[in-house]
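Hi F.,

I've been meaning to write this up properly since the lab meeting, where we talked about keeping a consistent format for the predictions we share between groups. The idea is simple: the sequence comes first, exactly as it goes in, then the structure tokens exactly as they come out, then a line or two of notes. No screenshots and no reformatting. I'm using this chain as the first example so we have something concrete to point to.
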Amino acid sequence: MISSKRLLKEQDAIADFCEAKGIEAGTLARPDRANQSLNRKAQAFLMQFNPAINKAGQEGEPLRPTVNRVLDKEF
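Output, unedited:
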């Protein structure tokens, strides 16, 4: 699987697949983008945050949904 959007046609896996298979992509219903990548700054944060939360155990778990919402919104 290609993990870098830079390598995909129009930075889109569906357009890339359609081109490879000779399908006209414009005729397809397109879902909303649901799996956006986090930028490096957010990834670096999670690399430090996740081990700290894991170490905190159950006490840290309530923070995860809030952190995820902030990262999704800001990054």
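Notes:
Residues 39 and 75 are 6 Å apart (CA to CA).
The chain has a mean pLDDT of 80.

If this format works for you, I'll send the rest the same way.

G.
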